Structures are given as structure tokens and as C-alpha cells.
């Protein structure tokens, strides 16, 4: 093979895709300077690698936001954060102005970070997702953010969002392209499904349960497809 052709092929093989530009601000940068060293120590103590891929679950009834990090092929629970406030009770958001906080399966990409939010730091959850768009649900700018007040979002307090936001930022910085974010009304065990069996939202909740069960079994986030206008796995 001619040397010039060899060099050309080598250059093509070594080309890397451009790094995703992450939204940033002085506020977010200052937060990382303080928070990240502490988080790195906590990660190391749990045998987790700094910058590992992130997966997030929210449970409304338990007021809990879980951050899981990838370790090998599976994910390990790193920390559970108390949700300070969300509005509208159980049942998912369906229209702009209904005061409800969404339930369902969402995807977070780097562009959804808001490092200059009026609520300290914020992450857009991606509502409405594909299923919700097919159902004609309306609304936008639904966030996980700081402070302890919200209509339709998940308010975590400033100290908690600083840790959650930093873990997500570092995962993106290390190459994760998207983060699965699953929001459930409650832990979808047999017990809780029985407790809430008479709720009018139960038909919808049953479409969420297979995603919950798959993760509980495999500790790998479940990707849905669409069947009709519903989630399917």
C-alpha cells in the first residue's frame, strides 16, 4: 500500500468526534470546586469511579430521588436524596397549568442543564416525552432544581441539587451522552400497587411497572418503546 494512502487511513481512524459542549456558569463552576472533592471521596468509599455514568429514579410518595452510578455492566445506588417539594400529588402531568409533576420515563442530555437557573441550578427532565406528545400532553420547562418551592417541578433544596447537578455534569464531561430519568408515583412493589389499587391513575401506573421491575431485576435502566400511545418493554 502506498505510504500516502497509509497515512490517510491512519488519520481517518484517529479522528475523534467533537466533545459535547456543556452549559456552564461561574455559579456552577464555583459549586463544583467545593462539592466535587467531597463527592469524589464518597464515591471512592463506595467503590465507585468518579465520572461514572448516572441513572436517576424519583419516587413521589417516598419523597425520594435516587442517584445510581454504573459499575461494570450494572448500576449501584450511590445516594438517596429527600425531595423537598413537588406539587399536585400522585398522578402525572397532562396539561400546562395543571400544577402536577410528571411521572414517566425521560432522557436528560447535556443541553438540558441550566447552570444559571432562578432556582440555583436546574435540570430539565424532558417533559413531554414521546409518549406524552402522542397523547397531546402540554407544558414545558419542567425541572429538578434547587430551593424548596415549585409548581410542577421537583425542588431539592440548594445543597442537594448541587450534588445531583455536579454528578450529572461530571458524567457528561466523562462522555455519557444521555441519562435515563425514571419517575414513579411510588415504589411499585406488590404492596404499594395494592394500597393504591383504587386510584384512577392505576391503568397508567401499570404501564410504568414493567420498567420498574426490569431495573429491580437487572440493575440496568430499561429503555422503552411505544405500543399504541403507551410505554412497552
TrEMBL record:
Keyword annotations: Cell shape, Cell wall biogenesis/degradation, Peptidoglycan synthesis, Transferase
Domain of life, per lineage: Bacteria
Active site (UniProt): 145, 153
One Pfam family matching this protein: YkuD
Molecular function terms from GO: carboxypeptidase activity; transferase activity
All copies of domain L,D-TPase catalytic, residue ranges: 54-184
UniProt pathway annotation: Cell wall biogenesis; peptidoglycan biosynthesis
CDD domains reported for this sequence: YkuD_like
A biological-process GO annotation: peptidoglycan biosynthetic process
Transmembrane spans: none
Family note: Belongs to the YkuD family.
Name this polypeptide is given: Murein L,D-transpeptidase YafK
Amino acid at each position: 500500500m502506498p505510504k500516502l494512502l497509509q497515512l490517510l487511513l491512519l488519520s481517518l481512524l484517529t479522528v475523534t468526534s467533537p466533545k459535547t459542549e456543556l452549559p456552564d456558569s461561574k455559579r456552577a463552576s464555583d459549586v463544583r470546586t467545593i462539592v466535587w472533592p467531597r463527592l469524589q471521596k464518597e464515591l471512592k468509599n463506595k467503590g465507585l469511579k468518579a465520572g461514572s455514568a448516572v441513572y436517576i429514579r424519583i419516587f413521589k410518595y417516598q419523597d425520594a430521588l435516587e442517584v445510581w452510578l454504573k459499575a461494570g455492566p450494572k448500576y449501584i445506588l450511590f445516594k438517596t436524596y429527600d425531595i423537598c417539594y413537588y406539587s399536585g400529588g400522585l398522578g402525572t402531568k397532562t396539561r400546562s397549568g395543571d400544577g402536577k409533576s410528571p411521572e414517566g420515563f425521560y432522557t436528560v442530555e447535556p443541553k438540558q442543564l441550566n447552570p444559571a437557573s432562578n432556582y440555583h441550578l436546574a435540570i430539565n427532565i424532558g417533559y413531554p416525552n414521546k409518549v406524552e406528545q402522542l397523547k397531546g400532553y402540554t407544558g414545558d420547562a419542567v425541572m429538578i432544581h434547587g430551593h424548596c418551592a415549585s409548581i410542577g417541578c421537583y425542588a431539592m433544596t440548594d445543597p442537594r441539587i448541587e450534588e445531583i447537578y455536579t454528578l450529572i455534569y461530571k458524567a457528561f464531561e466523562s462522555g455519557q451522552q444521555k441519562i435515563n430519568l425514571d419517575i414513579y408515583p411510588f415504589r411499585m412493589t406488590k404492596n404499594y400497587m395494592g394500597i393504591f389499587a383504587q386510584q384512577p391513575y392505576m391503568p397508567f401506573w401499570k404501564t410504568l411497572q414493567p420498567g420498574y421491575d426490569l431495573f429491580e431485576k437487572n440493575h440496568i435502566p430499561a429503555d422503552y418503546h411505544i405500543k399504541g400511545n403507551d410505554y412497552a418493554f
